[in-house]
Amino acid sequence: MTNTGWAVLRQRIAALPHAWPLAAGALATAGVAEALTRAMLTGAEAQYGLVLCLLALATTLPLGFASPAAATATLTAASVLSLTVFGTLTVAGMAAQLASLYLLGRTGARLLPSLAALPFPVIALAGPAPADSEAAFLALVLASLAPAAAWIAIALRARGEALVHRSARQAVAATLLEHTARGERARIARELHDVVAHHISMISVQAETARLTTPGMPDAGAQRLSEIGDTARAGLTEMRRLLGVLREDARAGPAERRPQPGLQELNELLDEAREASGAGTRLIVSGSPRTLDPGIELAAYRIVQEALTNARRHAPGAAVDVELRYDAEVVRLRIRDNGAGPRAAIAPGGHGLAGMRERAAAVDGELHFGNAPGGGFVVEAVLPARLEETG
């Protein structure tokens, strides 16, 4: 049976009603039977046999009828008395003593189990009378097993708490990551509002212009163009309502209505990065520059902006190269610094790498990051190169 199977079995046994009183009763019965057998084999007097039976009860019954601390204290006192005064201890009493130390250690107490196990090494070292080999053997066994039972229980308790804490930390980290991702998606949606609103406005304007300026247009065609314009305006109204839901702070609305940035503003962004960090920042452009879909340009701009912010935060003073390459089907971004290396997945107070990944995914792109060959950290994004549609 595996360790997990044993743990489940122990939990099921411990959960049974009256499990420990029944176990203590069984141990007490076995202890009394052992004491009576020993008294008869040695030809001891009836009074001595009675004392052995009482000791057998004292070293077993408290296990099931007292708290772990009280049971351990009572059993330890009875076991020490039985070993030092009467030179004997039943096997059931030894089992009850070890079980009590284990239970006490599992409650989270650390000092008490160690103190309760201490008398048995002391008895073994002090040594009973040489002729009393049985007491010496029993003391030696308990001196070996009692501290082990206590410390194993303490270690298992600590391990269990560590696993619980680790699971809690993982759950919190996963929740934080998901919360950050949702916040970034809402932020992307708010920023894309202007881009989408522009396209819908153009649909409305072009439909109305076509209806008014096309000579000889049939009434049915004019009616359809009018409906297209009405639908576009209704769509704009619904988008404004959606933006109100997504906006985290309604007072920040006017500031969010400014035109969203694109690749044309990269030079200004790099100038700001140079002033903020005092380090060298280069923009390397290859391919044939062209005007892309506003959503693509916004995503590219924000990825570069966040990568530069991360470089300033995690690699202050490091030089940064921003490479922008226009290919036939995609636009490639590569932001590399010559700093120390890895970054945290989510920077405190910011969106970090998770935010950049959400930006790329929002426009059907990809983003990768990691240690750069030769040192430093690199962020690479591949975005579709959809051209801006003109009316």
For the biggest β-sheet, the strand order reads 1-2-3-5-4
Helix content bin? 55-70%
Largest sheet: 5 strands, mixed
By DSSP (H or I, 4+ residues per run), the number of helices equals: 14
Low-pLDDT segments: 249-256, 344-350
Mean pLDDT: 80
Please indicate the percent range of residues in DSSP E strands (runs of 2 or more). 5-15%
Indicate the structural class.
alpha+beta
User: Termini distance?
Assistant: 73 Å
Radius of gyration equals: 39 Å
Total E-strand runs: 5
Summarize this entry quickly:
With 391 residues, the protein is of the alpha+beta class. It has helices spanning 3-15, 19-42, 46-58, 62-65, 68-84, 91-106, 111-117, 119-126, 133-213, 219-246, 253-256, 266-277, 294-314, 352-362, and strands at 281-286, 320-326, 330-337, 366-371, 377-384.
Secondary structure elements and their pairing?
Blueprint (H helix, E strand, L loop, with lengths): L2 H13 L3 H24 L3 H13 L3 H4 L2 H17 L6 H16 L4 H7 L1 H8 L6 H81 L5 H28 L6 H4 L9 H12 L3 E6 L7 H21 L5 E7 L3 E8 L14 H11 L3 E6 L5 E8 L7
Parallel strand pairs: 1-2
Antiparallel strand pairs: 2-3, 3-5, 4-5
Mind explaining what this structure looks like?
It contains 14 helices and five strands. It is α+β, with helices and mostly antiparallel strands and 391 residues long. The model is unreliable at 249-256 and 344-350 (pLDDT under 50).
